[in-house]
Structure formats: C-alpha cells, structure tokens
Design a protein that fits this description.
This protein is of the alpha+beta class and 315 residues long. It is built from twelve helices and eleven strands. This is L-asparaginase II.
C-alpha cells in the first residue's frame, strides 16, 4: 500500500522519526472529506471491528445491555470491574471462565497489570483484553443452541453471522480473512468501509440494533477501554462519538451526524494513531480533547518534544 507521511516525532527542534499511514474522513452524506494514503486498500481493523461483531451478537440474541454490551465491544484494560463483568456475562449463560477460548494474556492496563503480577498471577484468558467479546460470543451461542467448544471456527454459525454483519456495515465484501490475536476470525475491509460502518452506528435511529450498540459504548466508555485510555477519553470528550481502537495502529470514530474517520498507521505504532485520528476529527471541524492532539516525547522524565500530525492532515 502507498501510505503517506501522517505523523512526525519531534525531540526539541529535531525531527527524530516519522510514521506513515492512511487516513479517511467522511462527511455526513458519506462523501470523502479527506483522503491520505490508500484508504481504499484492504486492512485488518483488528479490534476496531468489535462494534460490528457486537451488533451481530445483538441481532443473534445476545441479551445483555448497558455496560455488559459495551464490554462486548471492548479491548478492556483488565480492571476489576471488567473482569467482574466477564464473569457476569458467563454466569448468566450458565458458563464459567473455563469456556473462554481467547489467548491467555496479562492485563493491558498499567495499574491492573501491576496488581495482577503482585498477586502472583500470570497470563489468563479472562485478563486478555478481548475476554468481554469472547464471553458475549459464548452467551450468544448458548441462546441459539450453538456449540461453544468451536465458536472460533470460521464456519461456525456465529462467525458466519459476524462476517455478514461486517460486510453490511462496511457496505463492501470482506477482502481478507485472518486470525486475530485473541484467536477469533479476523475480517479485513477497507479503511473507507470501516469509517462507513462507524458513521452508520453513531447515527443510527433509536430503537435499532445499531443504536443499541452505539448507546452502550457512548454511555459506558470506561467499559470499552479503561481508566485513562485514549478511546475512553475520546468518547468522553466528543459527545455522541462512537470510537474504537485496534492493534497495529488502527483507530476509527463515528459521529451522530453520520460523519466518520478511520486511520491505519503503517508500522503499527500505537503512539501515532490517536494523534492522527484527532487531526482527522479536526478536518471535520470537531474539537477533540487537546491532550489527545499530541503525544509527549520525554527526556529524563520531562516533556522535550511531541508526536504531531503531519502537514498532510493539518495543511
């Protein structure tokens, strides 16, 4: 893919590093407001697909709402309330944590990680950031009488329903199939398709399944990410915004008027994705929290520079 320069890393007055990537910004009517790189190329949205996956679960009978629906969309930090929520989802479905087939991992939240290690514990499926999604997948299987041991198989009825929903939200066919870090099937779409899907969710009418998912995310941002996480702060800072980050430098957001943006950082750097997405929002005239507009570069514990969006996004 022909990515373009989207972020610069300045240490003082010296340009130390750069990040390339692709960005798309869509107006409320779906027309392209800004295009950088190749947003029409297929990419793996990684965890940015989770709101679409959750929509498929709701349509298939997943009954949890409020914070437990937001948790189905989450890449959670592994805080106590996240893990309690996973147990609640499983318990209401008559299952326990042994049913989870996600990859055992440590919590990704700094404080949650320290507490987990201090308790003498190692990687576990429940502390994997996708365990909320997996618990919701299992609960949906129970509702439908589908097998739970093989719920991650590509031809399982659950995964077939998820693929169809991803394609519907993106308004395009899946362009690549892989396996996500958690073990679930991963459906690739274009960045433009990812943005379209987020705009659709954020602007959905009350009473629709799309609105149900969006409302859960915007009402419970801490359950989608965690305390202090960029995605949580972004949803708090932009009223009505439906946002989700993903591994390998992916970030997407939809707004209540149907406008949307999505980005992919070519080298997968997480430090650049929030900076780039905030710049994309500003192209829509949306003010995002100022502290997300740059990322500090540190020298001996103090700020000596910043990661900033490139001229392609601000010029």
């Amino acid at each position: 893919m022909a990515h373009e320069l989207v972020a610069e890393v300045w240490r003082g007055e010296f340009l130390e590093s750069v990040h390339h990537g692709s960005v798309v910004v869509l107006a409320p009517d779906g027309t392209t407001r800004l295009s950088v790189g190749q947003p029409a190329a297929v990419a793996f949205p990684r965890s940015a697909n989770k709101p679409f996956q959750a929509l498929a679960l709701v349509r298939a009978g997943y009954a949890e709402r409020a914070e437990l629906l937001a948790l189905a969309c989450a890449s959670h930090s592994g805080e106590h309330f996240h893990l309690d929520g996973v147990r609640r989802i499983l318990g209401r479905a008559g299952l326990d944590v042994d049913a989870l087939r996600c990859t055992p991992e440590l919590p990704i939240g700094e404080h949650a990680l320290h507490a987990h290690l201090a308790a003498g514990r190692g990687p576990e499926p429940i502390t994997m950031n996708c365990s909320g999604k997996h618990a919701a997948m299992l609960a949906t299987c129970v509702v439908n009488g589908w097998s739970t041991a093989d719920y991650l198989d590509l031809d399982h009825p659950l995964q077939l329903a998820i693929r169809a929903t991803v394609e519907e939200c993106a308004s395009e066919p899946v362009g690549a199939v892989g396996v996500d870090g958690c073990g679930a099937p991963l459906f690739g779409i274009t960045l433009a398709g990812l943005a379209r899907g987020f705009g659709r969710l954020a602007s959905a009418a009350p009473g629709t399944d799309e609105h149900t998912v969006a409302h859960a995310m915007t009402t419970y941002p801490e359950w989608v990410g965690g305390t202090g996480r960029d995605v949580t702060r972004l949803m708090h800072g932009v009223p009505g915004a439906v946002a989700k980050d993903g591994a390998e430098g992916v970030f997407a957001i939809g707004l209540p008027d149907g406008s949307a943006a999505a980005c992919k950082i070519a080298d997968g750097a997480r430090r650049a994705q929030g900076v780039v997405l905030v710049a994309a929002l500003r192209a829509l005239g949306v003010d995002a929290p100022a502290d997300l507009a740059t990322v500090p570069v540190l020298g001996h514990g103090r700020t000596v520079g910043a990661v900033r969006p490139s001229a392609a996004l601000t010029g």
